[in-house]
Specification:
Length: 268
Amino acid sequence: MPLLSRVNTNGMAFYDLSKEERVKKVAEIQFQLREAIKNTNEDTFLAYFSDEDLYTRKAAYLGVGRIYNSEVALREPILLLLQKLISDKDEHVRQTAVNTAGEIGMFQFQKVSKIFDKALFDVHHKVRNAVIGSLKKMSQKNPKPSLVWAKQFLTHPDKEIRRQVCHGIELRGRTHPEEILPLLKVLQFEETRRVRSTLIHVLGQISYKEGCLPKVISALKNWENKVLVHDAIDEIIDVHSEKRYANFSALSQQQVIDYISKHLNSSI
Protein backbone atom coordinates (compact mmCIF):
# COMPACT_ATOMS: atom_id res chain seq x y z
CA MET A 1 0.00 0.00 0.00
CA PRO A 2 1.56 3.35 -1.00
CA LEU A 3 2.02 6.11 1.51
CA LEU A 4 -0.71 8.69 1.81
CA SER A 5 0.43 12.17 0.86
CA ARG A 6 3.44 13.09 2.94
CA VAL A 7 3.58 16.29 4.96
CA ASN A 8 6.07 17.83 2.61
CA THR A 9 3.41 17.67 -0.09
CA ASN A 10 4.07 19.44 -3.39
CA GLY A 11 7.16 21.09 -1.97
CA MET A 12 5.24 22.52 0.97
CA ALA A 13 6.94 22.27 4.34
CA PHE A 14 4.89 21.57 7.43
CA TYR A 15 4.48 25.20 8.44
CA ASP A 16 3.55 26.22 4.91
CA LEU A 17 0.26 24.49 5.62
CA SER A 18 -2.70 26.12 7.38
CA LYS A 19 -3.38 25.24 11.00
CA GLU A 20 -6.26 23.00 9.99
CA GLU A 21 -4.10 21.22 7.41
CA ARG A 22 -1.34 20.71 9.97
CA VAL A 23 -3.74 19.11 12.44
CA LYS A 24 -4.97 16.81 9.69
CA LYS A 25 -1.44 15.89 8.63
CA VAL A 26 -0.34 15.11 12.18
CA ALA A 27 -3.28 12.73 12.54
CA GLU A 28 -2.48 11.22 9.15
CA ILE A 29 1.16 10.64 10.06
CA GLN A 30 0.23 8.97 13.33
CA PHE A 31 -2.32 6.76 11.57
CA GLN A 32 0.21 5.66 8.97
CA LEU A 33 2.86 4.93 11.55
CA ARG A 34 0.43 2.92 13.67
CA GLU A 35 -0.48 0.83 10.64
CA ALA A 36 3.20 0.44 9.78
CA ILE A 37 3.92 -0.91 13.27
CA LYS A 38 1.08 -3.39 13.02
CA ASN A 39 2.24 -4.56 9.59
CA THR A 40 5.99 -4.41 10.29
CA ASN A 41 6.36 -1.88 7.49
CA GLU A 42 9.76 -0.30 7.99
CA ASP A 43 9.52 1.75 4.79
CA THR A 44 6.87 4.05 6.27
CA PHE A 45 9.12 4.80 9.22
CA LEU A 46 12.08 5.45 6.96
CA ALA A 47 10.03 7.83 4.84
CA TYR A 48 8.96 10.00 7.74
CA PHE A 49 12.07 9.68 9.90
CA SER A 50 14.27 10.78 6.98
CA ASP A 51 12.08 13.64 5.77
CA GLU A 52 14.01 16.84 5.08
CA ASP A 53 11.41 18.89 6.94
CA LEU A 54 12.21 19.14 10.66
CA TYR A 55 8.58 19.47 11.68
CA THR A 56 7.57 16.42 9.71
CA ARG A 57 10.12 14.39 11.62
CA LYS A 58 8.91 15.94 14.87
CA ALA A 59 5.32 14.99 14.08
CA ALA A 60 6.56 11.45 13.45
CA TYR A 61 8.46 10.99 16.69
CA LEU A 62 5.72 12.60 18.77
CA GLY A 63 3.20 10.35 17.05
CA VAL A 64 5.16 7.19 17.80
CA GLY A 65 5.56 8.34 21.40
CA ARG A 66 1.80 8.70 21.72
CA ILE A 67 1.24 5.27 20.19
CA TYR A 68 3.76 3.69 22.56
CA ASN A 69 2.21 5.25 25.63
CA SER A 70 -1.38 4.42 24.68
CA GLU A 71 -1.15 0.97 23.03
CA VAL A 72 0.67 -1.59 25.15
CA ALA A 73 0.50 -4.30 22.49
CA LEU A 74 2.58 -2.17 20.09
CA ARG A 75 5.37 -1.32 22.52
CA GLU A 76 7.67 -4.24 21.80
CA PRO A 77 7.47 -3.85 17.99
CA ILE A 78 8.27 -0.14 18.38
CA LEU A 79 11.31 -0.87 20.55
CA LEU A 80 12.59 -3.47 18.12
CA LEU A 81 12.21 -1.08 15.23
CA LEU A 82 13.99 1.76 17.04
CA GLN A 83 16.89 -0.55 17.88
CA LYS A 84 17.24 -1.20 14.16
CA LEU A 85 16.80 2.41 13.01
CA ILE A 86 19.46 3.72 15.38
CA SER A 87 22.02 2.08 13.06
CA ASP A 88 20.54 3.43 9.81
CA LYS A 89 22.94 5.16 7.42
CA ASP A 90 20.80 8.34 7.31
CA GLU A 91 21.55 10.71 10.21
CA HIS A 92 17.99 12.05 10.11
CA VAL A 93 16.63 8.56 10.68
CA ARG A 94 18.99 8.02 13.60
CA GLN A 95 18.19 11.48 14.98
CA THR A 96 14.44 10.85 14.85
CA ALA A 97 14.87 7.41 16.38
CA VAL A 98 16.65 9.06 19.32
CA ASN A 99 13.93 11.69 19.67
CA THR A 100 11.33 8.93 19.66
CA ALA A 101 13.27 7.10 22.36
CA GLY A 102 13.23 10.33 24.34
CA GLU A 103 9.43 10.36 24.28
CA ILE A 104 9.43 6.81 25.64
CA GLY A 105 12.20 7.51 28.15
CA MET A 106 10.12 10.17 29.86
CA PHE A 107 8.13 7.26 31.29
CA GLN A 108 10.17 4.09 30.74
CA PHE A 109 13.83 5.04 30.49
CA GLN A 110 15.14 1.51 31.04
CA LYS A 111 13.43 0.38 27.83
CA VAL A 112 15.47 2.77 25.69
CA SER A 113 18.70 3.23 27.64
CA LYS A 114 20.73 1.14 25.17
CA ILE A 115 19.65 3.42 22.34
CA PHE A 116 21.15 6.37 24.20
CA ASP A 117 24.29 4.39 25.05
CA LYS A 118 24.89 4.03 21.33
CA ALA A 119 23.64 7.39 20.07
CA LEU A 120 25.72 9.46 22.49
CA PHE A 121 28.77 8.36 20.49
CA ASP A 122 27.24 8.79 17.03
CA VAL A 123 29.49 10.30 14.37
CA HIS A 124 26.93 12.99 13.51
CA HIS A 125 26.28 15.99 15.72
CA LYS A 126 22.53 15.95 14.94
CA VAL A 127 22.21 12.54 16.54
CA ARG A 128 24.31 13.48 19.57
CA ASN A 129 22.32 16.68 19.99
CA ALA A 130 19.12 14.63 19.93
CA VAL A 131 20.48 12.64 22.87
CA ILE A 132 21.03 15.84 24.84
CA GLY A 133 17.60 17.20 23.91
CA SER A 134 16.03 13.93 25.00
CA LEU A 135 18.04 13.90 28.22
CA LYS A 136 16.68 17.34 29.06
CA LYS A 137 13.11 16.10 28.68
CA MET A 138 13.69 12.77 30.41
CA SER A 139 15.55 14.21 33.38
CA GLN A 140 12.67 16.64 33.89
CA LYS A 141 9.87 14.06 33.64
CA ASN A 142 11.66 10.90 34.78
CA PRO A 143 14.69 12.14 36.71
CA LYS A 144 15.86 9.19 38.78
CA PRO A 145 16.96 6.76 36.03
CA SER A 146 17.90 9.56 33.63
CA LEU A 147 20.29 11.19 36.09
CA VAL A 148 21.80 7.83 37.09
CA TRP A 149 22.51 7.24 33.40
CA ALA A 150 23.95 10.73 32.94
CA LYS A 151 26.24 10.49 35.97
CA GLN A 152 28.42 7.77 34.47
CA PHE A 153 29.39 10.01 31.54
CA LEU A 154 30.46 13.05 33.54
CA THR A 155 33.84 11.40 34.05
CA HIS A 156 34.13 10.03 30.52
CA PRO A 157 37.54 10.52 28.83
CA ASP A 158 35.91 12.30 25.87
CA LYS A 159 35.58 15.99 26.79
CA GLU A 160 32.67 16.49 24.40
CA ILE A 161 30.70 13.72 26.08
CA ARG A 162 31.27 15.41 29.45
CA ARG A 163 30.16 18.75 28.04
CA GLN A 164 27.03 17.40 26.38
CA VAL A 165 25.85 15.50 29.44
CA CYS A 166 26.50 18.49 31.69
CA HIS A 167 24.29 20.54 29.39
CA GLY A 168 21.70 17.78 29.18
CA ILE A 169 20.90 17.74 32.91
CA GLU A 170 20.41 21.51 33.09
CA LEU A 171 16.62 21.51 32.66
CA ARG A 172 16.03 19.35 35.72
CA GLY A 173 18.33 21.62 37.65
CA ARG A 174 16.24 24.69 36.90
CA THR A 175 13.48 23.37 39.15
CA HIS A 176 15.42 20.92 41.34
CA PRO A 177 19.02 22.16 41.55
CA GLU A 178 19.72 19.96 44.57
CA GLU A 179 19.36 16.88 42.35
CA ILE A 180 22.05 17.83 39.85
CA LEU A 181 24.48 19.82 41.99
CA PRO A 182 26.19 16.65 43.31
CA LEU A 183 26.69 15.54 39.70
CA LEU A 184 28.05 18.92 38.64
CA LYS A 185 30.51 18.89 41.52
CA VAL A 186 32.37 16.07 39.77
CA LEU A 187 33.35 18.59 37.08
CA GLN A 188 34.64 21.33 39.39
CA PHE A 189 38.29 20.71 38.45
CA GLU A 190 37.54 20.38 34.72
CA GLU A 191 40.44 21.73 32.66
CA THR A 192 38.84 21.75 29.21
CA ARG A 193 37.63 25.27 28.47
CA ARG A 194 34.39 24.27 26.71
CA VAL A 195 33.36 21.87 29.46
CA ARG A 196 34.24 24.33 32.20
CA SER A 197 32.28 27.08 30.43
CA THR A 198 29.27 24.80 30.14
CA LEU A 199 29.47 23.97 33.84
CA ILE A 200 29.52 27.65 34.77
CA HIS A 201 26.66 28.34 32.36
CA VAL A 202 24.55 25.57 33.93
CA LEU A 203 25.24 26.85 37.46
CA GLY A 204 23.90 30.21 36.35
CA GLN A 205 20.84 28.68 34.70
CA ILE A 206 19.83 26.73 37.79
CA SER A 207 20.05 29.74 40.10
CA TYR A 208 17.41 32.23 39.03
CA LYS A 209 14.05 30.57 39.69
CA GLU A 210 12.26 30.88 43.01
CA GLY A 211 13.96 28.99 45.83
CA CYS A 212 16.93 27.91 43.73
CA LEU A 213 19.65 30.41 44.65
CA PRO A 214 19.99 29.27 48.30
CA LYS A 215 20.40 25.67 47.17
CA VAL A 216 23.10 26.57 44.65
CA ILE A 217 25.01 28.78 47.07
CA SER A 218 24.78 26.19 49.85
CA ALA A 219 26.31 23.59 47.56
CA LEU A 220 29.05 25.89 46.25
CA LYS A 221 30.21 26.54 49.81
CA ASN A 222 31.51 22.98 49.88
CA TRP A 223 33.26 22.97 46.51
CA GLU A 224 37.04 22.92 46.76
CA ASN A 225 37.83 24.77 43.54
CA LYS A 226 37.38 28.36 44.74
CA VAL A 227 38.51 29.82 41.42
CA LEU A 228 35.68 28.06 39.62
CA VAL A 229 33.23 29.03 42.37
CA HIS A 230 34.26 32.66 41.93
CA ASP A 231 33.64 32.45 38.18
CA ALA A 232 30.29 30.74 38.79
CA ILE A 233 29.25 33.54 41.15
CA ASP A 234 30.06 36.12 38.47
CA GLU A 235 27.82 34.17 36.08
CA ILE A 236 25.00 33.86 38.63
CA ILE A 237 25.05 37.61 39.26
CA ASP A 238 25.11 38.31 35.53
CA VAL A 239 22.19 35.95 34.89
CA HIS A 240 20.09 38.17 37.16
CA SER A 241 20.97 41.32 35.20
CA GLU A 242 18.63 43.33 32.98
CA LYS A 243 20.36 42.02 29.86
CA ARG A 244 19.79 38.39 30.87
CA TYR A 245 16.93 37.00 32.97
CA ALA A 246 15.93 39.85 35.28
CA ASN A 247 12.34 39.66 34.04
CA PHE A 248 12.15 35.96 34.89
CA SER A 249 14.21 35.71 38.06
CA ALA A 250 12.77 35.46 41.56
CA LEU A 251 15.29 37.97 42.96
CA SER A 252 16.73 41.24 41.72
CA GLN A 253 20.40 41.40 40.90
CA GLN A 254 21.06 43.48 44.02
CA GLN A 255 19.23 40.96 46.20
CA VAL A 256 21.41 38.22 44.70
CA ILE A 257 24.59 40.20 45.40
CA ASP A 258 23.45 40.81 48.98
CA TYR A 259 22.58 37.16 49.51
CA ILE A 260 25.90 35.94 48.15
CA SER A 261 27.83 38.49 50.22
CA LYS A 262 26.10 37.29 53.36
CA HIS A 263 26.21 33.54 52.77
CA LEU A 264 29.23 32.78 50.61
CA ASN A 265 31.87 35.47 50.29
CA SER A 266 33.66 34.45 53.47
CA SER A 267 34.09 30.96 51.99
CA ILE A 268 35.85 31.98 48.76
